[in-house]
Give the backbone structure.
Amino acid sequence: MSETLNTVILGSGCSGLTAAIYAARANLSPLVLEGHEPGGQLSMTTLVENFPGWPEGIQGPELIDNMRKQASRFGAQFKLAHLNKVDLSTHPYKLETTAGQICTRTIIIASGASARWLGLPSEQALIGHGVSSCATCDGFFFREKEIAVVGGGDSAMEEALFLTRFASKVTLIHRRDGFRASKIMIERAIAHPKIELMTNTVIDEVLGVEEKEVKGLKLRNLATGDVSTLPISGLFLGIGHEPNATAFAGQMDLDEEGYIRTVNNVITTKNGVVIPGVFASGDVQDRRYRQAITAAGTGCMAALEVEKFLEAYNH
Ligand code: NDP
């Protein structure tokens, strides 16, 4: 470890990259640690239709690529590494990362959120063998196969609709009667001839562990108690996300779901003491909006807070 950096940005999704653009343009030479899922959630989606400025929509990976180029143009540096540990009680901060120790005056935590799993042992055993949390990554492998998607929000609807491009049939399994997804997405799913909706139903087991490939699902209807088997070749998870903040547990104020609590991107300890120079942006601190544009917006805000902090720190 040789120098103390101005700022390290944890995460290279929409929020981290926006923070990098702003910090780089402010001449802070930010270092972006790209994290476990470089590019974040947008790099795993298809068409983004609601990011302002793209009237025809833009592919998620292309949008991320553009942001990365934009940050690089102003001098942001990138490292394919992630944080293992940091002690936020001593400043400047020494980050223990997979690329060694990095010393920095400020940190922007833009580590986002990752796909949630059901938590069944059979599901975990079959990840990569027919169980997937990324329709755009793995849908291609299920050409003319019957598959299932679990969840009742916009992600589940979007995945189900996307997977109809490959699968011969998509069963959408949801634990309740009512859907959380937006009306337009529900209507599209209902109208699709390849999609069948199965409500009030939970998955008790993913079948095929011995064969090392998904063979079907053991289902239970919560209204009737009926148990049934659905033969399928693939299961896609669309049940939401978990914030990537476990590395900070015990050091800062997290809410009951593990999201970082912030006020204007500022983070405090559980006792309400401000952690100097550490800010959070994007989905890791946002359980309410979780949109690309809000992640970008808070990334910008965090970078401006870093600038202000460093100005005060250097005088
Ligand atoms: P949500 O939290 O909105 O939905 C998660 C769904 O999964 C819910 O229906 C929930 O059921 C279900 N669920 C959660 N845990 C379990 C479990 N253990 N077992 C079974 N079912 C479970 O997450 P999304 O990822 O769908 O959406 C997040 C945000 O992103 C939303 O604001 C959404 O609008 C937005 N989004 C927008 C898109 C678009 O506009 N194109 C695309 C994707 C997401 P229950 O309803 O019973 O709680």
About this structure: The helical segments are 14-25, 60-73, 121-125, 135-138, 154-163, 183-191, 292-313. The pocket of NDP is lined by residues 116, 118, 150-156, 158, 175-176, 180, 239-241, 290 (CB under 6 Å). The radius of gyration is 21 Å.
